[in-house]
Amino acid sequence: MDLAKFGERIAHIDLSARTCEVRPAPPEWVQRYIGGRGLGVRYVLENGPGVDPLSPENLLCFMNGPLSGSEVTMSGRWACVTKSPLTGTVTDSHQGGWTGARVRWAGLDGLVFSGRADAPVYAFIEDGRVELRDASDLWGKDVHETVARLQERYGEKDVSVCAIGRGGETLSRYAAWVNEDDRAFGRGGTGAVGGSKNLKALVIRASRQRSEVADAAAWQQARKNALDAVRDEAHITSPKKGGLSVYGTNVLMNITNTIGALGTRNSQVTAFGEDAEKIGGEYVTDNLLTGNPTCHACPVGCKKEVEIKEGPYAGLKMESVEYESAWALGANCGNPDIGSIAKLIDQCNDIGVDPIELGNVLSTFMEASQKGWTNGERLDWGDAAAMVALTERIATRDGVADVLAEGAARVAEHFGHPEIGMTCKGQAIPAYDPRGLKGMGLGYATSNRGACHLRGYTAAAELGVLDMGLDPLEWRGKGELLKVFQDMAAFSDSLDLCKFSAFAQNAELYAEQYAASSGQPFTMDDVMEAGERIYNLERHFNNLAGFGEGSDTLPQRFVDEASTEGGSKGHVAELDQMLAEYYAAREWSDGVVPQAKLDALGVV
After folding, report:
1. Residue among 354, 310, 362 nearest 335 (CA)
2. 69: CATH
3. Which residue, 428, 448, 478, sits at the end of a domain?
4. Cα–Cα dist 273/277, whole Å
5. φ, ψ at 508 (rounded to 5°)
6. CA distances to 86, 195, 430, 508 from 452, in Å
């Protein structure tokens, strides 16, 4: 695996013609947009921002970064990039486990699917080749059965499978691709794009390969420096003492609850009280934990295998009760039952839908029911059994579930009250209430893929994960801070390194690793410029796709209704003030990238 030659092996698969051609990415694209997220967005932009996301003309790009599958710590990620059927924006989602690494070991840097197969197919990837094979016997099956059947067919050793379930087949707008480790391309409806193309799965067969790099000595030193940073006991990533290793991502539940940033019952209140402890990482670790699996080249082990011990779902074993999912299907729905939350997450992994969006879909339906707007079928707060039953119906779009499969924004519009959809640009919010974490509110509004915490995770600074001494309730300075975080994330997503690497690493360490692998001189300033270029590329796509002035908004609930709970009591999100500061830092005009800015960055 020659990292220095990244980008020379992009497989272009025309599903309509059933052909595959492997050719290099344009060198200037790789130089400017690095790989992973950035390179994928460049392909999608070239294809045209005006395409219908569910049409054969839309591209579905699975892209590695230049460090994917290497020995670099936390390099087990890859990206899925497309135009989103949920939002109409460009979207990228990232998946852990071993799938991306195996694609790289199989001799490819990326897969670009176009067209639509005339019957269900899956792609078999091995030795630098992609073959389309009949998936008619797999259509109608969910992810776990699809994975099991394909592993039985090809063996489990050195094989990865990534598949859609019925959620993707029935074109749920928030359908996901999920691999054998229950790691997902979760957000933005990438699974629906797969379903629209009759593409059921990817099967990758490849064994581990060592990296060939441009500067071996610098590579070894850069790897060591990055690994030492991740292992440092001062960081949350430390395998010995870090909260991610001990409690997983759900370490945040009780923290955000205490400060009044845990949106509850569709963000009508900002804390879940003592019930938060029943669904938090400490409870899960102490009572349900059975194992600590990890992704390729990762010492952190943030995933927590669990087994439910009692109740109607006793005996259920599943991969992980993540913070975002536990919030969405827990506090957000007024549901303190950890057993049902685990069941719902497992359903999402199997059906193949995004649990964050699903939780918001259900909470939106719950608020509409609470206020008497549903005119028939209803869903009550915390009714876990009904949540599980309704989720199964979403897979087949049965009855009201046909609407629920469309996403939270469309559910709110269906019931005549769009104001109860906690969404930005059509995508539902994750687990941080903007009245208690001001930077995250600005991040939701300005995210290029719709409401998202991962575009620029200012919560790391606001919650003290990064020791920057920031007040989560102060809006001043959050615009400038968010720009830096967004640009850094755009670069790391393009390498493609795990997002949690940023809790320990910095731009200097990213630059060292990229320079040593590629043989190109690269500095901290180059990292930040490349990240800024990628973020502006995405915004340019969205501007061309119809997201113009005034599109960076928050649900009015966060702006007008003051928090009444926890440490954020009395606060709202000061969006207008933060946006003014942010646009000044970005040199944008009310959310639109001026041509002068595009020219200065060398975008397209």
Report:
1. 362
2. 3.60.9.10
3. 428
4. 8
5. -65, -45
6. 13, 24, 6, 26
